[in-house]
């Protein structure tokens, strides 16, 4: 598929990944970052936001599984000073960890209501309000799994994922959305979010601890779909776009 011009692209903050993406992400898309726990999904999102914020592009992180203080500390250790960018008005952290604490059922007065549905509504309203105020160019949501695991059946999960993705799409920002990989191997079952997102990055650990990143789909782009190795070091994540995986 033909790729857009340079003005239609948004750099990922990782040169090797931009090589695979033919220059970067198409603007205004929602990209799913799918992978096992501890694979580097938060780091890739952080590098994406930090790169943009440092250039003056408003960047927003919606944290579903860790408080702001821990995020700031962990990313500073990798050379990303988000506190400085926040002070300059270029970065915004939205702490959505309270969604995890909402019970399965709660009460409004004497009326019992589904706590998980209420949590979803509150989350989406918070995201919409903060986006309207901050008007970000870049957004990262980490991790969607902390919300959708409260809806175990595929039938219940799909509309939750769709609501979240549509909320991000309506912002016109380019968004990364992380989720846990539930199964591996060639026969793995595709997750609802893979169908609904406009692009999918798959991060996996192979034998001997080799980590790979692969572009499973990217609508509107001509991309490298081969798995490529990457390293996580003192300065974050580096994609080795010219190396093969054997």
Task: Give an overview of the whole structure.
The protein has eight helices and 13 strands. The chain has 246 residues and is an alpha/beta fold. It has a single domain, classed as 3-Layer(aba) Sandwich (Rossmann fold), CATH 3.40.50. Helix 5 (115-134) packs parallel to helix 7. The radius of gyration is 18 Å and the shape is globular. The model is unreliable at 106-113 (pLDDT under 50).
List keywords for this structure.
246 residues; 9-stranded mixed beta sheet; alpha/beta
Low-confidence stretches at least 5 residues in length (pLDDT < 50)? 106-113
Number of strands: 13
Mean pLDDT: 88
CATH architecture: 3-Layer(aba) Sandwich
CATH superfamily: P-loop containing nucleotide triphosphate hydrolases
Biggest beta sheet summary: 9 strands, mixed
Please, what is the oligomeric state? Answer: single chain
CATH fold-type name: Rossmann fold
Strand order of the largest sheet: 5-4-8-9-3-10-11-12-13
The secondary structure category is alpha/beta
Distance between the termini: 27 Å
Q: What is the string of SSEs from the N terminus onward?
A: EHEEHEHHEEEHEHHEHEEEE
Which band does the percent of strand residues land in?
25-35%
Helical content stands at: 25-40%
Number of helices: 8
Shape: globular
CATH domain class name: Alpha Beta
Based on CA atoms alone, the radius of gyration comes out at 18 Å
């Amino acid at each position: 598929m033909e790729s857009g011009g340079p003005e239609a692209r948004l750099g990922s903050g990782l040169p090797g990944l931009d090589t695979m993406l033919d220059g970067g992400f198409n603007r205004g898309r929602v990209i799913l970052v799918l992978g096992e726990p501890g694979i580097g999904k938060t780091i890739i999102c952080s590098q994406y936001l930090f790169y943009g914020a440092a250039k003056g592009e408003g960047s927003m992180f919606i944290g579903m599984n860790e408080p702001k203080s821990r995020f700031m500390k962990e990313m500073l250790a990798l050379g990303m000073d988000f506190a400085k960018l926040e002070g300059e008005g270029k970065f915004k952290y939205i702490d959505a960890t309270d969604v995890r604490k909402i019970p399965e059922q709660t009460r409004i007065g004497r009326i019992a209501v589904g706590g998980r549905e209420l949590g979803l509504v509150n989350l989406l309203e918070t995201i919409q309000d903060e986006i309207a105020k901050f008007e970000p160019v870049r957004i990262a949501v980490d991790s969607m799994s902390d919300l959708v695991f409260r809806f175990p059946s595929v039938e219940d999960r799909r509309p939750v994922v769709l609501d979240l993705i549509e909320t991000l799409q309506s912002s016109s920002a380019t968004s990364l959305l992380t989720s846990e990989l539930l199964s591996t191997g060639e026969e793995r079952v595709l997750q609802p979010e893979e169908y609904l997102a406009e692009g999918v990055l798959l991060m996996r650990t192979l034998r001997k601890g080799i980590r790979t990143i692969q572009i499973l789909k990217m609508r509107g782009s001509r991309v490298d779909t081969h798995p490529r190795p990457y390293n996580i070091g003192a300065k974050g994540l580096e994609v080795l776009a010219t190396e093969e995986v054997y």
